[in-house]
TrEMBL record, chain A:
InterPro entries: Rab-GAP-TBC_dom, Rab-GAP_TBC_sf. Residues 1-40 are annotated as: Disordered. GO terms for molecular function: 14-3-3 protein binding; GTPase activator activity. The keyword Oxidoreductase does not apply. This is TBC1 domain family member 22B. Residues 162-386 form the Rab-GAP TBC domain. It comes from Chrysolophus pictus. May act as a GTPase-activating protein for Rab family protein(s).
Automatic annotation (TrEMBL), chain B:
It comes from the Eukaryota. GO terms for biological process: antigen processing and presentation; endosome to lysosome transport; endosome to melanosome transport; melanosome assembly; mitochondrion organization; phagosome-lysosome fusion; protein localization to membrane. SMART domains: RAB, RAN, RAS, RHO. This is Ras-related protein Rab. It is found in: Endomembrane system; Membrane. It comes from Coturnix japonica (Japanese quail). The gene is RAB32.
Amino acid sequence: MKSKKASSFHEFARNTSDAWDIGDDEDEDFTSSSSSLQTLNSKVAKATAAQVLENHSKMRVKPERAQPALSEMPTNCKVNKSSSEAQLSRISEETCMRTPLQKQQSLPLRPVIPLVARISDQNASGAPPMTVREKTRLEKFRQLLSSHNTDLDELRKCSWPGVPREVRPVTWRLLSGYLPANMERRKLTLQRKREEYFGFIQQYYDSRNEEHHQDTYRQIHIDIPRTNPLIPLFQQPLVQEIFERILFIWAIRHPASGYVQGINDLVTPFFVVFLSEYVEEDVENFDVTNLSQDVLRSIEADSFWCMSKLLDGIQDNYTFAQPGIQKKVKALEELVSRIDEQVHNHFRKYEVEYLQFAFRWMNNLLMRELPLRCTIRLWDTYQSEPEGFSHFHLYVCAAFLIKWRKEILDEEDFQGLLMLLQNLPTIHWGNEEIGLLLAEAYRLKYMFADAPNHYRR
Amino acid sequence: MAGGEGPVSGVAESREHLFKVLVIGELGVGKTSIIKRYVHQLFSQHYRATIGVDFALKVINWDSKTLVRLQLWDIAGQERFGNMTRVYYKEAVGAFVVFDVTRGSTFEAVSKWKHDLDSKVLLPNGSPIPAVLLANKCDQKKDGSQNLSQMDQFCREGGFIGWFETSAKDNINIDEAARFLVENILANYKTFPNEENDVGKPKLDLDPLKAESKSQCC
């Protein structure tokens, strides 16, 4: 199995810095099978645990901060500290309900991340001061972003292993193709696009109560309060109204698909990332009435456009009969049958069909299976990878499935398997786990892109 | 009740059954809430929209010699997912069709769902699978009450074996509705006991004689 290709992957691994950080002290051999990924994982889990514990002890230390992103930041920008206890109990209740399989508790070394719903990644508030390496990376980003013409290829390369929180909003705008690479055109483009969006609102939003759009609006209206129901940010009326407008406008401008459940989730990462530009600490508890209307409008318009760009690439996921999803679920089955026959046969034995669990993985881009902070990190890569959302996601799903192979093989009936697969214990996941997942996905993609018959029996 | 007529005495030793039961209806009518209430005795305003299908298992000690496992398939309510239902309905032996008493349009959609069900899954003898209609969110009902005899008639004409006013929030009639459906499924089973043990995967329970029972309303 060790081949020239694999070793060039190895080189890639070395080049893409921090996705591999945690493996630095390992003899990283990503060319070997998933079982070694597992071993690596348990080592990593311990290392991570130790690291997080250490971070916890530094929790009170004010992290070194970058300048607030924009001058628009209101002076009365009050930041609500996470009022953890009430939320924690609510969350743990939900957890018990949703996951009868509390397998994550079998890792005693792993400390509890304070807020399960915590959005920001571990480089955000409460994290220790940046390492030299992180500083260098951030510097590199700043350099790229401030150059007259941002080198998008270079930006993608830098972003693949994760975008630093401080520069994520502007980087995402660039990577999604929303913002032009040319520095001078950016301001005007933003202004124009934001005006255009609010032009749509003016033109179409009143039609939500008319007969031909009523159904669409009603469905959106029902789904919004139950989008991220455990995160206080999304229970605020102002935020819910923003989501309704974004989704309604998108839906009526895309009649081939219209509003499909799941699309509501896809607004969330953009909204949170663009909001984070104005919020110092816990985004999930932030009261948006502290922001000026102009700022809120910018966040709304940017979220709309970036979500539109994303959906443009996966539109056949949501058109009639959802052919994109059908195709990808089949492809996943095919892929898994080649890379892990044992898991595949296990599913067949107990009559588990891929569609029964992977439909949601495709329809919601794994957002239902991962904490929001992980989705944000995942999207750093999806936006850096050619066809990230439409193609690379398939390999991520395969890697994700194989990650649980042991748990899967331990289940010996249909119900057990389905309930495991629909409640995978990722609640503690952070950047490290996503980094490993992406590494494995990349390995799979590499093998099958260049040698599609490599594993054919 | 529907189950009373079967030759119960024929079944001597203890039995285990696994029944696949569907829960269908328009989006936001409370399908997930009903299942969570029934299986976990919990209610929350905070369930996310179901995408595709969710699974739950309810184990019932039916009587001293009968154990029933209900495999509940919580099917997403949005029409866009409708073309998937054929895959999901396969081998189901019972169904709940749910609507929201506070939204008339969800009641109008009941017939559509029932038709979808009957056109995609049947018992081996060709009769429709037993379906119970649930009028959910009855705790929020505004006007007095639906006309009971009208609902009975609707059930008869629509081929439902019965209907219940339910509230997942206040835990009204959920257990009763489930018991009613299971009795019906079991009666089918006892009428024509399956030779194979049905544990391990959903097995159809045959029902040639009970086709008329669908006119029973509660």
